[in-house]
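Re: that backbone. Tokens:
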């Protein structure tokens, strides 16, 4: 099952990588910062999966545009792969981007979802809330508006998938969406 979590910065107060924010800015141009600090950072981890990423980003942007405060959101794509495949896409679309070299990440050549999210939280401008999003989840127009309603009653984290807040699709639906 796919999942996302939303949590406040306080949960990441303990350092999880040896990389500091200052070091990340000079680390072989692996980071692109397009946005100032926002209330919500939406972090999308990815390895390969170009069609999925482009579709997911389109849906995220559409959902953000329907939020009560669209300017409070920032999308970060954090790629964990052998080489940067999504950097130019992120530059073109003004999306913050980070790259973690798979060969140097001590994950036995496997994509690490937790490393991607920890890295994004550690190396990008901080926000009040982080949405850790898979690159194959589509959000309906009401997703962020509903999320904004949930947040005031939560102290540290939210599971925003209750009551069908994301779209569940079969492989035929997915193919049709990606083709159009």
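Recovered sequence:
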């Amino acid at each position: 099952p796919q999942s996302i979590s939303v949590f406040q910065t306080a949960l990441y107060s303990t350092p999880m990588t040896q990389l500091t924010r200052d070091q990340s800015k000079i680390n072989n141009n692996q980071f692109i910062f397009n946005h100032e600090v926002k209330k919500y950072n939406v972090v999308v981890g990815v390895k390969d999966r170009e069609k999925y990423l482009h579709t997911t980003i389109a849906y995220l942007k559409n959902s953000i545009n329907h939020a009560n405060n669209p300017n409070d959101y920032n999308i970060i794509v954090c790629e964990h792969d052998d080489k940067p495949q999504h950097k130019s896409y992120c530059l073109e679309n003004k999306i913050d981007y980070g790259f973690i070299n798979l060969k140097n990440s001590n994950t036995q050549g496997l994509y690490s979802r937790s490393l991607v999210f920890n890295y994004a939280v550690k190396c990008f401008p901080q926000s009040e809330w982080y949405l850790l999003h898979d690159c194959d989840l589509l959000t309906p127009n009401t997703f962020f508006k509903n999320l904004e309603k949930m947040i005031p009653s939560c102290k540290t984290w939210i599971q925003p998938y209750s009551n069908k807040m994301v779209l569940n699709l079969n492989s035929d639906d997915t193919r049709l969406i990606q083709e159009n």
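Strands lie at 5-8, 31-32, 40-46, 73-81, 96-101, 129-134, 157-158. The first strand starts at residue 5 and ends at 8.
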